[in-house]
Amino acid sequence: MDAHGVPLSLAASGANVHDVKLLDATLRNIVCPRPDREQAPIETLCQDAGYAGYAGRRTTYRHGYRQCLQTRRQESDAKFYKPGPIARRWVVERTHSWLNRFRKLRVSFEKTEASYTGLLSLAAALICWRQTFSIYG
Q1: Residue 25 contacts residue 14 (beta carbons within 8 Å)
Q2: In this structure, is residue 3 part of a structural domain?
């Protein structure tokens, strides 16, 4: 997702699969083009502590991102001492809230992963559509 919480990519699996195992698939499925690496600065990928291990770091760097890991405590301390920049954690929580408004997606009763991924893609497209008009106009 971008800085506004608009989903750029998604990957679905069972609930017993750790998030770091889907990081590579999620980063490969990003639908918007990225700028050339030679001309643009390295982009930052904000992650939580679940991505702190070697696998998360390796996948993040392999896709050309710089890893930004902050615990909730570090983020609240930074907000206290430097109140200007906004915390980034709430963007993810807000996007999850938008997805939870699609009641069909809360509990997956779909028989195949492809059908559930299709429903998630439709919900993400609707979120992108709504946010495009609220951000730009």
Answers
A1: no
A2: no
Query: How much is the pLDDT for 45?
Result: 80
| Residue whose structure tokens are 């902050």 | 70
What average pLDDT is seen over the chain?
Answer: 77
Cα dist from 94 to 26, 29, 77, whole Å: 19, 21, 21
The answer to whether position 130 is within a domain reads yes
Q: Render pLDDT for 110-126 as a digit per residue (tens, 0 to 9).
A: 778 788 888 888 888 88
pLDDT of residue 92: 72
Contact 42, 65 (CB under 8 A): yes
Residue 11 to residue 1: CA distance in whole angstroms: 12
In a domain, 4, yes or no: no
Identify the H or E element spanning 79.
helix 72-81
In sequence order, the 6+-apart residues with CB closer than 8 A to the CB of 88 are: 3, 46, 75
Domain that holds residue 109: 19-136
Stated pTM of the model: 0.70
- Total structural domains within the chain: 1
Kindly state whether residue 52 falls inside one of the protein's structural domains: yes
